[in-house]
Design a protein that fits this description.
Shape: globular
Mean pLDDT: 77
Low-confidence stretches: 1-39, 135-148
Largest sheet: 8 strands, mixed
CATH architecture of the largest domain: Alpha-Beta Barrel
Helix content: 40-55%
Number of helices: 19
Structural class: alpha/beta
Strand order of the largest sheet: 1-2-3-4-5-6-7-8
């Protein structure tokens, strides 16, 4: 890896003055005919884990184009094309990185794109589309279920020809297509009003067993699990992908009371100095006090070709060349890698860094005085889950701003709305997210920053 690439990756700080705009869809879609509709239809995304525990993709949520006024049928069609095109564009960026992209999309959105001359090109291998049920409900093997949607079989054939996998919810109703799905989403039991009921791990295991028997060979999706422990207990074949809600920190009763390892404490102390803006001589002294850390930083910089023609042999040189912003990002990477081994460890590390980046991006966009403190707030909110420790143990080596401490202890403060917004997006609570996003530029701008926070570089 060249030094230029390393430096660009580490120096991910966004511009401080340029206003954030929703990310455009990178495909021929309605954004070309109606630029003002860029971002319409894009909802939140959630990381998906494969049975090996690695980050395997993202679940994308379609956001109905509310607040857009359709003056005619043509306007309504343009809104639908914009929503479908933008969502598919975000999903293609995901699949282009070798990850899977899952979304439930209205059939009208899919048909609208496929009706275009180049519509098939909007769909790529790696996409998993969950189709809503038909009405009236009919047995999945009965082709009469397609009576209300002529051409649906042809639509499915065209999508599958592009490498798209089609699935639906296993909720006791009819499937939208005859025959077995390519994937099946398992949902929790619900009340007569449709509200999901709590399900423990044993109940989910029974559902998995019954579904595997009813649909032999069909991969299963678990996207509604309660927490990371439940996810790890169920993350095995025939489950293809799984997701769960991740809280800001586990309850103290669920966290170990053990002290943090010395290496972790040193990294937290170094993060402290970086965020506070301490003098470089203090940073250098802290790094030099840890021989393993010094050697690791020197090896990284020399292998990246930071100074062609000579070897960097001094921590002072490295700190001066790398810069404080890039250095604290490197320390943050090391910090999350201190997490004990667990099935979902890699995905949790990715989520911790994405949450930290989102809070920093929001803080910069709002002109906050200490955006690095927001990054540290997001990262610290994940440390108890990552390191399996109590929150007070994670905070013992940190000197966080009072606003960050208030937010972490759920006691309000000016910074708490930022953290609550990130958590709402992660659990796809768009009602709460929309309310919290209003003073931060609106939901569309926030979702654009959320997508940026997940970019690998």
């Amino acid at each position: 890896m060249s030094f230029d690439l390393l430096h660009r990756w580490l120096r991910r700080s966004p511009p401080r003055t340029e206003p954030v705009r929703p990310l455009p869809a990178r495909l021929p879609s309605a954004t070309a005919e109606a630029p003002a509709l860029a971002g319409v239809g894009l909802g939140a995304r959630r990381p998906l884990l494969a049975p090996g525990g690695q980050l395997a993709g993202f679940e994308f949520h379609a956001l109905p184009p509310r607040g857009q006024r359709a003056r005619s049928a043509a306007d309504e069609a343009a809104l639908t094309r914009a929503a479908a095109g933008n969502l598919l564009g975000a999903m293609r960026l995901c699949t282009a990185s070798g990850l899977q992209a899952v979304a439930e999309m209205p059939l009208t959105w899919l048909q609208t794109l496929l009706d275009k001359p180049d519509g098939d090109a909007a769909f790529t291998p790696g996409m998993v589309l969950l189709l809503p049920p038909t009405a009236p409900m009919q047995p999945a093997s009965d082709a009469s279920c397609l009576a209300a949607l002529p051409g649906q079989i042809d639509l499915a054939a065209r999508l599958r020809a592009q490498g798209v996998r089609l699935g639906w919810n296993a909720d006791g109703g009819a499937a939208p297509l005859p025959g077995p799905p390519d994937v099946l989403r398992l949902r929790p039991a619900a009340t007569p009003e449709g509200a999901p009921l709590p399900m423990n791990t044993q109940a989910w295991q029974r559902v998995l067993s019954d579904s595997a028997a009813a649909w032999p060979g069909v991969p299963l999706l678990l996207l509604d699990l309660d927490d990371i422990n439940q996810l790890e207990a169920l993350l095995a074949a025939p489950v293809l992908l799984a997701a769960c809600a991740v809280a800001a920190a586990p309850a103290d009763g669920q966290a170990a009371a053990t002290a943090l390892p010395p290496q972790t404490q040193r990294l937290l102390g170094l993060m402290n100095r970086l965020v506070r803006g301490d003098d470089n001589t203090l940073l250098v002294a802290d790094i030099k006090a840890d021989a393993a850390l010094s050697l690791r930083l020197l090896r990284l910089m020399n292998s990246a070709g930071a100074s062609p023609g000579r070897v960097l042999g001094s921590i002072d040189e490295v700190v001066q060349l790398l810069g404080r912003d890039a250095l604290y990002r490197w320390v943050a990477q090391l910090l999350v890698q201190q997490a004990p081994a667990r099935p979902a460890g890699a995905a949790l590390q990715a989520l911790a860094l994405a949450r930290a980046r989102l809070l920093e991006l929001l803080a910069r966009q709002q002109g906050e005085a200490n955006p690095g403190g927001f990054y540290l707030l997001g990262l610290t909110s994940m440390l108890p889950l990552l390191l399996r420790c109590r929150l007070d143990a994670a905070l013992a080596s940190l000197q966080l701003p009072p606003q960050a401490l208030q937010a972490l202890h759920d006691k309000g403060g000016d910074w708490q709305p930022y953290l609550l917004l990130a958590l709402a997006l992660e659990r796809n609570d768009m009602v709460t997210a929309q309310r919290l996003a209003q003073p931060l530029g609106g939901l569309s701008a926030v979702l654009a920053l959320s997508a940026k926070a997940w970019l690998p570089g």
